[in-house]
Amino acid sequence: MKEKRSKNPFRKLLVILTAGIFLIMLTVMTLQGFLMYLTLRFRFHADIGMPQFWRPIPLLMVISAVVGVALTVIFSRVPLRPVQELIQAINQLADGNFHVRIHLDLTQEFVRLSDSFNRMAQELENTELLRSDFINNFSHEFKTPIVSLRGFARLLKSDSLSRQEREEYLDIIIHESNRLSQLATNVLNLSKIEKLNILSDMETFGLSEEIRQSILLLASKWQKKEIELIIDMDELDYHGSRDLLNQVWINLIDNAIKFSPEKGKIKIKLHRKHDMVVFQILDNGCGMEEATKAHIFDRFYQGDPSHTTEGNGIGLTVVQKIVELHKGTIDVQSEAGIGTTFTVSLPEYRSEIS
To answer: Which residues are within 8 A (CB) of 125 and not within 5 positions of it... i.e. 6 or more apart?
Structure first.
């Protein structure tokens, strides 16, 4: 109980208010007592022939009342000023001004209250920025293939097209249709994963075998670029969501293939480290700048601003969410012109009985 009281941010404010009211009452009572003393004394001297101007006049009572009211206003407003400032800041925040900040230093509790409020305002500001970026990027990613489909469909109406041109335009339409379909699927998949809080399809499976299956699924891509794969994996089992984790391995391997040069190298490692299962994938591709690395897990963010590489910037967002659902972490190390390394660390499953 003592700890809860000491952590109450308004406890000192109540103490200050109580002390202020007590001082006001004490001041008024003292002033009234002094005036009563003067009244009795002046009456006594008036009875023995003192001048009339020494007698107390009603103006003293008015002065006493005015002084009491003034002191009450002063002592009540000073402690409440931080609360009023906080209320104004909250109202501004409710109106959409996420740049508002407060600095209350009346007590240590008010300092902590200011820090908490400012942190909340900063998070809301970041959320608003992410929302705006998401809408802009979402609109761009959907609009681009739709405009392309419309443009080439109009071209196909021309009777002057050769058979080769017609086939080329049809291939582009098919490609853009697949791209749009894949984008819609990825958005729905991301939305579904983000709503998950508890994994219900947990099972124990051969993790090494699942990663090998993911590599085989992408064989056509890495064989086309003649990429050399260096695989260094221990035979490990893992307890988790097999389907969701497959998305992690496929996304990371596909990402490494996409940004690796022709005849490049990709190294895939899987080992147990203490109580963690650690998966690493290293490539010698183009790498990333620090600014790019800071945003790669954001929705629709693409390291290639020209959008010439395939993808829609959702894969790594999905990967991060799935890893977090498994109570794990994902880390990226990259250097422009050298390559990129993704490290996924997953805690080993331990039953509550053990």
So the answer is: 98, 99
